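Researcher: Sit down with what I've pasted below and flag anything odd:
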Amino acid sequence: MNNTLLECVPNFSEGQNMQIIKQITDQIESVEGVQLLDVDPGKATNRTVVTFVGNPDAVIEAAFLAIKKAAELIDMSKHKGEHPRFGATDVCPLVPISGITMDEAAEYARKLGKRVGEELQIPVYLYEHAASKPERKNLASVRAGEYEGLPQKLQNPDWLPDFGPANFTHIVAKTGAIAIGARDFLIAYNINLNTTSVRRANAIAFDVREAGRVIRQGNPITGEIIRDQNGEPLRKPGALKSVKAIGWYIEEYGIAQISMNLTNISVTPIHIAFDEVCQSAQERGIRVTGSEIVGLVPLKAMLDAGKYFLQKQQRSLGISEQEIINIAVKSLGLNDITPFNPNKKIIEYVLRANKPDETKLASMTLTQFANETASESPAPGGGSVSAYVGALGISLATMVANLSSHKRGWDERWEFFSQLAEQGQTLKDQLLFMVDEDTRAFNRILDAVRLPKQTEAEKQARTTAIELATQYATQTPFKVMQLALQSMAIIREMAMHGNPNSVSDAGVGAYCALAAVKGAYLNVCINAKDLSDKQFAQNITAQAQQILNQAHQTEQEINTLVWKLMNNNPNS
C-alpha cells in the first residue's frame, strides 16, 4: 500500500446473515493493495457498514466486486430494516485519506458509478462532491422514497439515474439503486435514550440536526406547514451545524436512539453532539444512557472528546493517550450496548495493527527491556537506554504536574499545571520513540555495510550509504540530548511551583534528564568520529557540548532548589 490512500465505506442492506456479509467482504480482501478495516453489522437496521482503504485503483476494483456480489446475494424486494435504504449496496462513499484530493476522489466515484451502471445494470445516483446536480448532493434527497418508491422515481425526468437503467427492470427489482459519491470523513453516531418512543426521539433529533424542523401554524405537530414564496417549507434550524439526525426504535436493544451523521467533525465534534442531545433530552424528561459509533472513528475525535470532558471537570489534560481515550469512552457511554475496543474502532490503531512493529523496545515490559539490553545483541545500546532514562525523567515531572493540578486549595492553578503536563506527555512520547529510533539508526549502518562492493560503482554507493547512515546515527542521540534538555525546563517548573510533597520526584527527574544528555553525548561523539565529513562531525559535536554544559548547569540549579525546599518542608 503506497502513501495515496482512499477509503471506501459501503453500506450493504444485510445485517443479519453474516455468511452473506462474509462473501461480500471476501471479494474486497481478494484485491491486492486493499486493507479491510472494519465490518459493523446491525441486526435491527438489517444493514452492515464496511470500511476498507488502499490505493485508489485497488479500492475501486474492490468496491465494484463487493457491489456485484451484494447484487447477487441480497434481494431488496424482501428487505426490511429500520434504516432508510434503496439498494442492496445502498450507498458507497469514497473518502480521501492521504495523497489524494476531494476532486480526484469524486472522479473515482464517477468512474465506479459508470462501471456499475453499465456492467451490472444497477441505477446509480452520484451524490455529495461527485453529484451531477446541486439537488443531488444530499444523500437524503437522493434516497427519498427509498426502495419502495423507486418505480415512480425512475419515471420522474428530474430523477433519472446518472448511470444505469432508468426503469424498474427485473434486475432493479432485486438490487434496487445505489448512491455513489465522494465525501469528507463522516462519523455515524447513535445516541441511546431511556425511552421506546420514536416520536420523542425524533423531537430531539429535530432539536439538534442542522435542518431542524418544519414550521407549522398553530399546533407544532398537526398544524399546516408554512411555506415560502416558492412553496418550500419554512424551517426552524436545529442547534448543530453539519449534523443529520433522525429518531428510531431499535428492537434488538429495546430502546429508541438518535441516529446521527456527523458530516464535519471540525464543525460539530462527537462530544458537542452528545452534550447537545443530553440537554435536549433532559428538557423533555428523557435521559441519555450512552452512545455507539458505527464503523471507525479518527483518533483525534476521541482525544478531543476525552480532553473536552477533562476540561469540564477541571482535570489535567497531561495524561497518556490511553487514559484520555478511556475518559472519552466512559463520558460518551460507548460501552452502553456493546464493548468499545479502541484497537478495532479507531482508524489509526487499526492501520497500525497491520504494519510492522516500529516500537518493539518501547512496548516491552521493564523486565523484557532489561533482558534485551543485557543480551548478546549490540542493540539496544547506550543510545536507547539514554532515551529511556530521559523518558523516565520527564515522566516524573509530568506526574508532579498532574498531582499539583488537583491539589486541595490549588483549584485556580489547574490549567497552568495541565499545560505543563501536556508538554511533558509530548516530550515523553518523543523520547520513547527515540528508544527504538536509536536501534533503527544502528541497523541502517549495518544494512549499508552489507551492501555489495564488487565494482567501483558499488563501492562508491556503499561508501556513500555508510556515511549517510552514520550521520543519521549521530543525529539520533543528538535529538535525544535536545529533548532531554527541553524536559529540564518543565522539571524546573515543577521543582519551583509543583506540589512541595513531590519535590524530590522533580529532583530525580533532573538527575535522569542529565543522565540522558550525558549518555546521548557519548553516542554522538563515538559515531561522529567515524564520519568522513569532518565539518559535519565538528559542528554536531560542538553543539552537543553546548547542550551538555547547559544541562549540567540546569540540573545543578534544579537540585540546589530541591534540597533547599526539602530542608524547609518536613513532609518532603
Notes: The chain has a mean pLDDT of 93. The domain at 5-182 is CATH 3.30.990.10 (Formiminotransferase-cyclodeaminase; Chain B, domain 1).
